[in-house]
């Protein structure tokens, strides 16, 4: 790190981190869940196509925008419906219920291998740590 960068960080006291995709990953991934649910209904498509859609700037911006407390279920249901529509499939209530159930009951959130070491290093360096997340 150059001297200019070091000087710019001198006054930094806090580091805020997101959870999903930053400190933890979902197992199975969102792309895998969508793939399974669509394939079970006869809509077979490549996992990478789904993963690409989930990484688009439009999807990411939609996921990070604020939404009213207590309405997380509605927000994620609408988001999932849009993902399915962008994949060229008409979502129905049964499909959206299945997606919700899979994310609620099947997904395990696991730390990336380096997460704990990085958090410890940041704390050891004197930073105060915080989490800001849109996860329910």
Explain what you see:
The chain is mainly alpha-helical. It is 53% helix and 12% strand. The protein has 7 helices and 4 strands. The strands form 2 sheets. It has a two-stranded parallel sheet with strand order 1-4. A two-stranded antiparallel sheet has the order 2-3. Helix 2 (30-40) packs across helix 3 (47-54). The longest helix has 15 residues, at 72-86. It is elongated and about 55 Å long. The two termini are 37 Å apart.
Structural descriptors:
7 helices, mainly alpha, two-stranded parallel sheet, 136 residues, single chain, 4 strands
- Which percent range describes the beta-strand content? 5-15%
SSE pattern, N- to C-terminal: HEEHHHHHEHE
Strand order of the largest sheet: 1-4
The computed structural class is: mainly alpha
Uncertain stretches? none
What can be said about this structure in brief?
The protein has 136 residues and is mainly alpha-helical. It has helices at residues 3-9, 30-40, 47-54, 57-64, 72-86, 93-105, 115-124, and strands spanning 14-17, 24-27, 108-111, 128-131. The strands form two sheets. Strands 1-4 form a two-stranded parallel sheet. A two-stranded antiparallel sheet has the order 2-3.
């Amino acid at each position: 790190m150059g001297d200019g960068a070091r000087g710019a960080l001198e006054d930094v006291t806090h580091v805020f981190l997101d959870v999903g995709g930053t400190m933890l990953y979902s197992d199975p991934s969102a792309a895998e869940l969508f793939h399974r649910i669509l394939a079970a209904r006869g809509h077979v498509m490549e996992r990478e196509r789904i993963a690409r859609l989930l990484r688009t700037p439009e999807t990411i911006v939609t996921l990070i925008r604020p939404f009213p407390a207590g309405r997380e279920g509605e927000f994620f249901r609408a988001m999932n419906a849009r993902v399915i529509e962008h994949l060229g499939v008409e979502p129905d209530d049964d499909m959206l219920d299945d997606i919700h159930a899979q994310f609620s009951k099947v997904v395990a959130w696991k730390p990336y291998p380096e997460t704990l070491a990085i958090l410890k290093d940041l704390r050891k360096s004197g930073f105060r740590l915080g989490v800001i997340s849109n996860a329910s």
